[in-house]
Write a structure and sequence with these properties.
homodimer, alpha+beta, Alpha-Beta Plaits, 3 domains, seven-stranded antiparallel β-sheet, globular, FAD-binding PCMH-type domain-containing protein (chains A, B), Vanillyl_alc_oxidase_C-sub2 (chains A, B), FAD-bd_PCMH_sub2 (chains A, B), oxidoreductase (chains A, B), flavoprotein (chains A, B)
């Protein structure tokens, strides 16, 4: 978001776990702060950006695949491997990575794990807490913890690796990752539906799960304003204007399965069922070829880029009940109207909502002509309190980082935060590991 | 296994989280040891059995479902709910529990989480580290940690709940569980194959994954000796003797899918493919009706009961590479032969192997006429060292408990164990929580 600029002058690029360990020992003895850096693609500026004069430890030179087992699908790789490079490595064996992100061309697997990245495949393959089999981590004092297991099941003692997943580099430096990769689907399809009202999203989601069951791989939502931004900035091919008419909400459904014929039959039957009910759907488009499949995805995947082109964005990545997605966006817009900041000179241009229905994860984006203290004051803590009122999460998939460390209490109780601080102290009593991030 | 007898006289049955908190506060102040107890069905006598004179805290009276969301499938329940009761609660809404165990009629969901139970559905739905959405836990000092979230995604701070999953009640008492339940499959089928050799297991597993892909829900292995025990004790209907001939290995394949017609077509095609290769398979039986489905499952599920009827069992629940399943059993048998303890008076009757191929989890059972120090000395640390030589886990799904606390180091490094002890100390510096379990 360009809100944080790092100040460090020293960037180290170790080539091995041993080198990482030596650097950490050195810094531990001298109480020098260290910031681990992956692909530096994060949203909350958690892992990769120094606050003061910490040493930056960039893992980009640790980029080798250590092993891949084509029977079990267990992949072991250096933390600095780029996600897309790993996908390419395992594709010839018939496997895919269990996560997929917009930043796949530059983000590192170690950074994905450190931030517990979510993304488009979470609905199907679950979170990294389930797919990561093991980690190799260097602790702040230089100790190497080797839990780089390729076992799918291991109940021996506390599952320490889980603490590092989503800790955003505040407990140690992930140097190696073992992850279970799923078999590549033989057939992938998608469709986009323009709905008569937001209230239809949930009934359609239920029908989708019933009809498409185990082949459902994504169920994405975007509102009309998000759609219009993508079309305005020519980042996606618009649907037929007369057919979508005044549809206020859209969903994209993706299937991935093992048998093309069966998958298409299921999808066709599903589409006929929802289209037959005119109160549900205005129109539906089923991709007929690879090119159209990409075009439909572009309508959803280009939203972040369209938002950036439209102006300066305040981005909230929240978990709230799916039934409240529309009202959370509407209430945020009303708040800005009340403050005289909506569609006024120097103010907010638009408020858009999109996200993963299957995961209850809403991306709330407020696009302004420019960043201003007034807009920020109108939005925070307003948005956090709104999320708290729904018992939601103020950070569904992008973490806490530096930006939201002050707001952690909206999603976690004081007892939980006290425990987190004790855990942090076990690993890093000198406070050198990614200082200022996650916990204040 | 009947090896451990509890000595405690005081059993408390709290009715609420508040009561659990009050009991813990009382015990914390007086440094009284506490053992949480669920359905008491564990194998390693971890959670449920006191070592000295600890108070037993039985959660059986906390057995209410707190909420169920039929759109997302998020279930929130008291820790003392019986697994099967929960299954029955959500079945009318079209959902199933993501775990299934032989002990489902008496085990508690809280105990399942505390022991990170695996079971028959892990291949399909993943481990509890992925499906548990939140926990309510009472810490040793009585503090209540409420992380009973129903959010599928929440990246706010360290994921503390993960530490309690598999901690076997040594860090706190789980009083409530929020868990994501998957939609109920519309169609379930199975088949059993008798193989020409153990070496065929892996090629067949690969074919199974390719052909059955997303509908594959179990791939179980059992060796000839395990099969013979089930038949001998009349716990399963034998397959046609002339057809299986001298087959040394069996696999059971189960599918669960959303479309009966599609699923049966996939299964039929798969069966024709493997049966057409005589070097792979001696015979295959595809269940034609519900009754036969149960009969085929009985051949695999009755093995533990058959083992118990045959004699006194030494049970090892290990993770090792699938390719070594047969050799691990064979080497254990050879070891007992060398020591003059195999099929001799008072000695071992049989060594059998069975387990979950999809998870790399082998159940190695040594059945003896009676327990003896000689047999134990022949088996331990022999089996643990064998597992260690394959970088395996000495406890894949049944935990460490009291029985294996001395053997933890075969699967975890001294650095990892040191960290576990520090974590234990954060939660329980007075050492009152399930003393003697997991960590020595």
């Amino acid at each position: 978001m360009g809100k944080y600029k790092g100040q460090s002058r020293l960037v180290l690029k170790p080539k091995s776990t041993q080198e990482v360990s030596q650097i950490m020992k050195h810094c531990w003895e001298r109480r020098i702060g260290v910031v681990p850096q992956g692909g530096n693609t994060g949203l909350v500026e958690g892992g990769g950006v120094p606050v003061k004069d910490e040493v930056v430890l960039n893992l980009g030179s640790m980029n080798k695949v250590r092993s891949f087992d084509p029977v079990s699908g267990a992949l072991v790789a250096d933390a600095g491997c780029v996600l897309e490079v790993l996908s390419q490595h395992i594709a010839p064996h018939g496997y895919i990575m269990p996560i997929d992100l917009g930043a796949k061309g530059s983000c590192h697997i170690g950074g994905n794990v450190a931030t517990n990245a979510g993304g488009l495949r979470l609905l199907r393959y679950g979170s990294l807490h389930g797919t990561v089999l093991g980690l190799e981590v260097v602790l702040p004092d230089g100790t190497i913890i080797d839990q780089l297991s390729t076992l799918r099941k291991d109940n021996t003692g506390y599952d320490l690796k889980q603490l590092f997943i989503g800790a955003e580099g505040t407990l140690g430096i992930i140097t190696g990752v073992s992850i279970l990769t799923p078999p590549m689907p033989q057939s992938t399809n998608n469709l986009v539906l323009a709905l008569n009202s937001f209230e239809n999203v949930l009934p359609i989601f239920k029908k989708t799960r019933a009809r498409l069951s185990e082949i459902l791989s994504a169920f994405e939502y975007f509102d009309r304003n998000a759609y219009e931004l993508v079309v305005k900035h020519k980042l996606g091919k618009p649907l037929a204007e007369d057919e979508i008419a005044d549809a206020p909400a859209f969903v994209l459904v993706e299937t991935s399965g093992g048998n093309k014929e069966h998958d298409e039959a299921k999808l066709q039957e599903f589409l006929e069922e929802v289209m037959s009910d005119e109160s549900l759907v205005k129109t539906g488009v089923l991709a007929q070829a690879t090119e159209q499949f990409q075009q439909l995805w572009a309508l959803r995947e280009s939203i972040p880029e369209a938002v950036s082109k439209e102006g300066k964005a305040y981005k909230y990545d929240i978990s709230v009940p799916v039934s409240t997605f529309e009202s959370v966006v509407a209430k945020t817009r009303e708040r800005l109207q009340e403050k005289g900041l909506y569609q006024t000179p120097g103010g907010v241009r638009e408020v858009v909502g999109y996200g993963h229905i299957g995961d209850g994860n809403l991306h709330l984006n407020v696009v302004a002509e420019k960043y201003s203290d007034e807009i920020e004051a109108a939005l925070e803590p307003f948005v956090y309190e709104l999320v708290e009122s729904h018992r939601g999460s103020i950070s569904a998939e992008h973490g806490i980082g530096l930006m939201k460390a002050h707001a952690l209490h909206y999603s976690k109780s004081k007892e939980s935060i006290a425990l987190m601080k004790k855990i942090k102290n076990v690993f890093d009593e000198r406070g050198i590991m990614n200082p200022g991030k996650v916990l204040e």
